[in-house]
């Protein structure tokens, strides 16, 4: 049949007239939440929020006759008073507080807003895929139960079991963790807020998968923090869970496969995020508004070992395939600067 496009009030077009409501929200959040279209702190936190909202979904609990959570239903905003104090949600109150006025101001459910803001935010990051966005999640009726969000001190077995319960395979877990390429931690080591997980926290590249495979040699701040492992670079922080997933036989080869393979990285993250964003939702009732999401800028830079490090620093964990050959960044060993708060 003919593809009929809707022309919205401001002249922009989208596949479905129901999606027109999103353009004013897009403009508002780009300007007033993401500081004019940056891939910075608010984008990183908005992406983390898509996960913490969606993963509140447990068919295993439902089977026991308990409420298993509504998944990507906006409960983290609607029932913020209950969910933000959960231990694994540490620090999430910042972005919940920042997003709540936008939900109130626009005619959109909290569940839709969280996933829309995540998809728009990711589009500001060079090298990212253009994420899918479906519109129409109903309001959450109940808060998520506690203990469904993975912790950085959980074992690989526990993490994979939690994701399996929510519907995700080990390969999908690894793909979702590409999110940590545009990420920093404020609360793992409270003395060094804004410390990134890779050397390029504003670029959606494979440096996270390279740098997590390097031998850990230092703590960027204090030692002894729960859920932290040694990192290979000053100014960079490593989660115990990321260190373990990079080295576990169930996940190591998939982890390594993203190194210097931008198209696989983009496709796998896009597919896994499409699934995450509708966790617990009836997709037959949602409208595809993906064409409202901006096209991300292309990748800037290419895969490399950070200055001073090379393949001898790799802790090879995938037995099937050798680590890809990469150049070392020229120049003296440097320390990664923090993600500025804004
Ligand atoms: C094994 C699963 C995971 C664990 C244990 C985990 C743990 C963490 C921790 C501890 C932080 C630091 C929070 C802080 O101190 O500020 C963090 C940050 C982040 N996480 Fe994860 N995470 C996991 C999976 C995911 C997934 C699936 C996504 C998204 C799809 C995600 C997106 C992010 C982002 C974007 C940040 C950075 C937030 C910021 O820069 O403010 N994480 N994660
Ligand atoms: Ca990066
Ligand atoms: Mn942060």
Number of helices: 13
Shape: globular
How much helicity do the residues have?
Answer: 25-40%
Main sheet makeup: 2 strands, antiparallel
Low-confidence stretches: none
Q: Structural class given helices, strands, pairing?
A: mainly alpha
Which compounds are bound in this model?
Answer: protoporphyrin IX containing FE, calcium ion, manganese (II) ion
Q: What topology, given as strand order, has the largest sheet?
A: 1-2
Radius of gyration: 20 Å
Please report the distance between the alpha carbons of the first and last residues: 48 Å
The whole-number mean of residue pLDDT values reads 97
* Beta-strand content estimate: under 5%
Number of strands: 8
Order of helices and strands: EEHHHHHHHEHHEEHEEHHHE
Note down, in words, how this protein is organized.
The protein has 342 residues and is mainly alpha-helical. The chain is built from 13 helices and eight strands. The strands form four sheets. The protein has a two-stranded antiparallel ribbon with strand order 1-2. A hairpin with an 8-residue loop joins β6 (228-229) and β7 (238-239). α2 packs across α6 (92-105). The protein is globular. Residues 41, 44-45, 184, 186 line the site of manganese (II) ion. Calcium ion binds next to α10. Residues 92-322 form the Plant heme peroxidase family profile domain. Its EC number is 1.11.1.-. Its cofactor is Ca(2+). Residues 324-342 have a biased composition (Pro residues). Keywords: Calcium, Disulfide bond, Glycoprotein, Heme, Iron, Lignin degradation, Metal-binding, Oxidoreductase, Peroxidase, Signal.
């Amino acid at each position: 049949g003919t593809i009929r496009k809707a022309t919205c009030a401001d002249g922009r077009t989208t596949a479905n007239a129901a999606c027109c409501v999103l353009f004013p929200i897009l403009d508002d959040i780009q300007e007033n939440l993401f500081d004019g279209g940056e891939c910075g702190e608010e984008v990183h936190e908005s992406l983390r929020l898509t996960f913490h909202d969606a993963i509140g979904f447990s068919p295993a609990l439902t089977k026991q006759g308990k409420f298993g959570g509504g998944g990507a239903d906006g409960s983290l905003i609607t029932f913020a008073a209950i969910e933000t104090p959960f231990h694994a949600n540490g620090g999430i109150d910042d972005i919940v507080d920042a997003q709540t006025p936008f939900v109130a101001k626009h005619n959109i459910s909290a569940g839709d807003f969280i996933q829309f803001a995540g998809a728009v935010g990711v589009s500001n990051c060079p090298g990212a895929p253009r994420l899918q966005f479906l519109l129409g999640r109903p309001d959450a009726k109940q808060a998520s139960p506690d203990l469904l969000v993975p912790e950085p001190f959980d074992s690989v077995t526990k993490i994979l079991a939690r994701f399996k319960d929510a519907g995700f395979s080990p390969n999908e877990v690894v793909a979702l963790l590409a999110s940590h390429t545009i990420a920093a931690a404020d609360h793992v080591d409270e003395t060094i807020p804004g410390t990134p997980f890779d050397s390029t926290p504003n670029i959606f590249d494979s440096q996270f998968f390279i740098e997590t495979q390097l031998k850990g040699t230092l703590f960027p701040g204090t030692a002894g923090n729960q859920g932290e492992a040694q990192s290979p670079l000053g100014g960079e922080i490593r989660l115990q869970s990321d260190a373990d997933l990079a080295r576990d036989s169930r996940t190591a080869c998939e982890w390594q496969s993203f190194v210097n393979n931008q198209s696989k990285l983009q496709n796998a993250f896009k597919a896994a995020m499409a699934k995450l964003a509708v966790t617990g939702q009836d997709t037959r009732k949602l409208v595809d508004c993906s064409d409202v999401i901006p096209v991300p800028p292309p990748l800037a830079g290419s895969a490399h070992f950070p200055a001073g490090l090379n393949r001898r620093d790799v802790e090879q964990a995938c037995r099937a395939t050798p680590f890809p050959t990469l150049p070392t960044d020229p120049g003296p060993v440097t320390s990664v600067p923090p993600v500025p708060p804004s």
